[in-house]
């Protein structure tokens, strides 16, 4: 894996409150190597470790993007949902930012049929065919389309299992993480002081509740993806 310089600024991370962990009573002892100190009963994350992990993640994302691989970004908690959709769309990644439907990856043979159903319904709506059935049936089709858009809209162009997953909250996305582990899909994950870093391939110690913190880590990751793609031979 190639090593690059990603201009990771510790002061910028401080301003985004990346260093703020959870209350000391909620901590996971496995996070001890990533904790700098505690202040007012709150653990403070070692940002030098965050910078090192983020740089390692960016190197991996850059390399994989240069090989034309598929990315899935997962973040369903309300602080992350809009950020995930925005970052994924800009970097042309797949994403899930609403409820994770159990078996979405481990039962892929079923899941992959649903985006096609979404596209078929969307085509019918765009061509005005929703206006042709009786009102009750048209309303039912509209509700079905809305549900598919809400939960599967971010993966409607995903034709196979992702090559790597970026996860914004280990605790919130434990089912998704478990499916990735079962299938051997590499994971990059924000890990706050209450998380288990051993469950992910590249843990990035960071505040996983703060919007600015999530956005900073996400933007850096998707920038690496975009840069890797831009250097890919045509």
UniProtKB/TrEMBL annotation:
A Pfam family that the UniProt record links to this protein: Ribosomal_S2
Keywords: Chloroplast, Plastid, Ribonucleoprotein, Ribosomal protein
CDD domains: RPS2
GO biological process terms, semicolon-separated: translation
InterPro entries registered for this protein in UniProt: Ribosomal_uS2, Ribosomal_uS2_bac/mit/plastid, Ribosomal_uS2_CS, Ribosomal_uS2_flav_dom_sf
Record's GO cellular component terms: chloroplast; mitochondrial small ribosomal subunit
Highest taxon listed in the record's lineage: Eukaryota
PROSITE patterns per UniProt: RIBOSOMAL_S2_1
Subcellular location: Plastid, Chloroplast
GO molecular-function terms, A-Z: structural constituent of ribosome
NCBIfam families: rpsB_bact
Family: Belongs to the universal ribosomal protein uS2 family.
Stated name of the protein: Small ribosomal subunit protein uS2c
Record organism: Abies nephrolepis
Chain's gene name: rps2
């Amino acid at each position: 894996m190639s090593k690059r310089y990603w201009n990771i600024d510790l002061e910028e991370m401080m301003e985004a409150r990346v260093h703020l962990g959870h209350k000391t009573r909620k901590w996971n002892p496995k996070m001890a190597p990533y904790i700098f100190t505690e202040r007012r009963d709150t653990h403070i994350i070692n940002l030098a470790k965050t910078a090192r992990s983020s740089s390692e993640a960016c190197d991996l994302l850059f390399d994989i993007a240069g090989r034309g691989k598929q990315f899935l970004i997962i973040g369903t908690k309300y602080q992350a949902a809009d950020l995930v959709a925005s970052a994924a769309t800009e970097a042309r990644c797949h994403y899930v930012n609403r409820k994770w439907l159990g078996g979405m990856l481990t039962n892929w043979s079923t899941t992959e049929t649903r985006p096609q159903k979404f596209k078929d319904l969307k085509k019918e709506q765009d061509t005005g065919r929703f206006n042709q059935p009786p009102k009750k049936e048209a309303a039912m089709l509209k509700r079905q389309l809305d549900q598919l858009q809400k939960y599967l809209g971010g993966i409607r162009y995903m034709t196979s299992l992702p090559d790597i997953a970026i996860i914004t909250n280990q605790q919130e996305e434990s089912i998704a993480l478990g499916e990735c582990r079962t299938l051997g899909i590499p994971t990059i994950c924000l890990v706050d002081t209450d998380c288990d870093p051993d469950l992910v391939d590249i843990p990035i110690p960071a505040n996983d509740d703060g919007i600015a913190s999530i956005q900073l880590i996400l933007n850096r990751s998707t920038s690496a993806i975009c840069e890797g793609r831009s250097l890919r031979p045509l």
